[in-house]
Amino acid sequence: MKKSYSTLVNKKDITSIAIGGFDGMHIAHQQLFKQLDKNGAIVAIESGYSNLTPKSFRQEYTNLPVYYYVLDNIKHLEGEEFIKLLKEEFPNLKKIVVGFDFCFGKNRKYNTTGLKNLFDGEVVVVDEVCNNKLAIHSRFIRDFIKQGDIKKANEFLGKEYKIVGQVIKGQGLGKKSFVPTINLLVEEFLLPKEGVYITKTIIKDEIFNSVTFLGHRVTTDGSFAVETHILNKNIHNAIGKIQIIFIDKIRDNEKFNSFEKLKNQINEDINISLKYFDK
Ligand SMILES: Cc1cc2nc3c(=O)[nH]c(=O)nc-3n(C[C@H](O)[C@H](O)[C@H](O)COP(=O)(O)O)c2cc1C
Ligand SMILES: Nc1ncnc2c1ncn2[C@@H]1O[C@H](COP(=O)(O)OP(=O)(O)O)[C@@H](O)[C@H]1O
After folding, report:
1. Any idea where the Riboflavin kinase domain is (predicted)?
2. What average pLDDT does range 165-184 have in this prediction?
3. Ligand nearest to the CA of residue 255, numbered in listed order
4. Interface pTM (ipTM) of the complex?
5. At the top level of CATH, which class does the domain 161-278 belong to?
6. Of 3, 51, 253, 265, which has fewest CB within 10 angstroms of its CB?
7. How far apart are CA 101 and CA 42, in angstroms?
8. Is a pLDDT exceeding 50 seen at residue 1?
9. 175-185 confidence digits (pLDDT tens)
């Protein structure tokens, strides 16, 4: 994972910024970043709700430094005060890039026209970025993920959806009765709909093909789990943080009336995943 550049770059060197929430760092966000010059930076306004790319993960998706501002600390500002703050923070600011729907200030009463009136430098407003006539917004991507429509989510993101979790102890049943899995505690990221997914798993910078179950283990102990099975490899000592990259959904979570039936289905899930990676 990339280190935050914002600690390495002097704010005085920044001449252009893009402003927004930027949860997802999706295709439309990347269009904004393209308008920045080589001394550009991203000003991410943190609402506290980002769960596609939680705060500490945004830097991974850009080479520009990301500076975070907490929405609650700035949302009371009048337009002039907001611009004054930006100019204090970035004394050499010449250009601001925002999207067509950008609003700011007290009660969100200032829009792109307000920004142009108040800022004495250049303001670039990016037109609505769409995918097949559907506007790209993080709220739509969240909906796709919640519905398990990973393909659509990835299309809108312009990359594969990735979550990060902490390795935890499982029931110890997998190895004995089914297949070995690495169990994860995922706290900050939005989880896809319960079910089984073709995935890749990153352990200490190494990428493995995998199949991941997430949901309530309705066939065994009923508790909620995120567990990944690495294909064609025995992994014994995964610890710390690991990353799961979602590629496609195989099926919904199911309750089986015997361990045997679940085991057969898990083998089928593994075959589907192996075939995908073989192609
Ligand atoms: C590919 C795969 C698919 C799974 N599908 C289901 C399922 O549909 N229903 C269910 O109750 N558990 C499912 N499980 C979870 C198993 O119940 C779980 O692996 C088992 O309880 C072992 O858990 P443990 O790793 O905590 O020991 C699945 C697990 C894997 C690896
Ligand atoms: N589909 C889009 N087309 C053009 N600009 C966009 C689009 N989505 C977001 N933006 C711009 O990107 C910045 C970040 O917006 P944000 O509200 O965080 O994105 P989202 O709408 O995806 O939640 C804002 O300046 C916003 O106007």
Report:
1. 156-278
2. 86
3. 1
4. 0.94
5. mainly beta
6. 3
7. 17
8. no
9. 677 899 999 99
Q: Whose CA is nearest to atom 28 of ligand 1?
A: 213
> How does the average pLDDT of the chain come out, rounded?
94
pLDDT at residue 2 tops 70? no
266 C-alpha to ligand 1 centroid (Å): 8
- Could you tell me the residue ranges of all domains in the chain? 13-135, 161-278
Sequence length of the chain is 279
Distance 222 CA to ligand 1 centre (A): 10
Q: What is the number of the ligand closest to the CA of 268? A: 1
Distance in Å, CA 49 to ligand 2 centroid: 15
Give the number of the atom of ligand 2 that is nearest the alpha carbon of residue 32. Answer: 12
Which residue's entry shows tokens 């001449």?
A: 15
* Whole-Å CA distances, 156 to 28, 94, 195: 9, 30, 21
Place of tokens 């739509």: 140
Ligand 2 site, residue 247, Cβ cutoff 6 A = no
Q: Name the one residue in this structure whose structure tokens are 């980002």.
A: 50
Domain 13-135 sits in CATH 3.40.50.620: yes
CA-137 nearest atom, ligand 2: 22
Q: State CA 264 to chain mean position distance.
A: 33
Q: Which pLDDT score is estimated for 8?
A: 74
Residue 250 carries which side chain, given as an amino acid letter? I
The residue among 1 and 21 whose pLDDT is bigger is: 21
